[in-house]
Design goal:
The chain is an alpha/beta fold and 279 residues long. The protein folds into two domains: 86 residues, Rossmann fold, CATH 3.40.50.10860; 121 residues, NAD(P)-binding Rossmann-like Domain (Rossmann fold), CATH 3.40.50.720. Helices cover 39% and strands 17% of the residues. The chain has a five-stranded parallel beta sheet with strand order 5-4-6-7-10, with helices on one face. β1, α2 and β2 form a beta-alpha-beta unit. The chain starts with a helix and ends with a helix.
Length: 279
């Protein structure tokens, strides 16, 4: 069964529109964009379209690709201090000359809708976070909607990156799954995949997972993205849909739901800000 991420995102949209309307003022999301990579621009357009459909104000802060890491860090820190900005997204990837984590760490927890700063990730890992990383939340939403419990299940996570593997692993462990993480090439990948009840991939290697690897009734969550022939593709061969109990395609699976979860985080942070006593 194919999981229709766009449909789920549309259902979440109706809920989020009401949440936004209930706030004293429309929340504002600031998106930091470095350079003019077409793939990055497409991700920004998706966020902007979804956010504006909720009544959220989107503000873009653009910088040239040759900006220094120190200058970008200062710009992000200053942006995060603005009282009229409820959340800040640093659109990834950044130029290779810039230490991405140092830039992400310039966003304080109170405005880190992506939960990518070290401080926010530590709070999440300790079970003290008020919001969850969007991709991890999206995967949890998919599993819960389809009555898939991870407790006691053999779950394989491919990749341990900041967007997918790392936060997903933490969330699975919080929910008492038996988690195996593979973050480097292994000769027996097919065996690991076949022995798993749930497979979650976020590597960015096309056709890494093929139908012959899958066990019957496996739940296959493809959260990997890479470009192939001018198109965004996932880690799993699309033919895997015929061999999996549930399958998320790329594009149109996890991605749209993750965008919805980012805006859910924004609403929660804006609500917490409005609930705080003012001097």
């Amino acid at each position: 069964m194919i999981i229709d991420g766009k449909q789920i995102a549309n259902e979440l949209r109706a809920v989020l529109q009401k949440s936004v309307a209930a706030l004293p003022r429309p929340p504002v999301l600031g998106i930091v964009i470095v350079g003019d990579d077409p793939v990055i621009e497409s991700f920004v357009r998706i966020k902007k379209k979804y956010g504006e459909s909720l009544g959220v104000s989107i503000r873009e802060f653009r910088f040239d690709s040759n900006i220094s890491g120190e200058m970008l860090k200062n710009e992000v820190a200053m942006l995060s201090l603005r009282d009229d900005i409820n959340g800040v997204v640093v659109q990834l990837p950044l130029p290779v000359s810039i230490d991405a984590q140092s830039i992400l760490d310039a966003v304080p927890i109170a405005k880190d809708v992506d939960v990518l700063s070290h401080a926010a990730m530590v709070a999440f890992a300790r079970g003290k976070a008020k919001i969850f990383p969007p991709v991890a939340s999206a995967i949890q939403e998919i599993l819960e909607r389809h009555q898939v419990s991870v407790e006691g299940k053999e779950v394989l996570v491919l990749g341990h990156g900041r967007l997918v593997g790392k936060p997903v692993t933490i969330l699975l462990q919080h929910n008492h799954a038996h988690v195996t993480v593979i973050d480097k090439p292994v000769a027996d990948l097919a065996l690991h995949v076949r022995e798993s009840e749930i497979v979650i991939s976020g590597v960015g290697i096309p056709a890494l997972i093929t139908p012959s690897m899958l066990s019957p009734n496996v739940v296959l969550i493809d959260a990997g993205t890479s470009e192939q022939g001018g198109h965004i593709v996932g880690d799993a061969d699309p033919k895997c849909v015929d061999h999996a109990r549930f399958f998320t395609p790329v594009p149109g699976g996890v991605g749209p739901i993750a965008v919805a979860m980012l805006f859910k985080n924004l609403v929660l942070l804006a609500r917490r800000k409005d609930e705080r006593p003012h001097a």
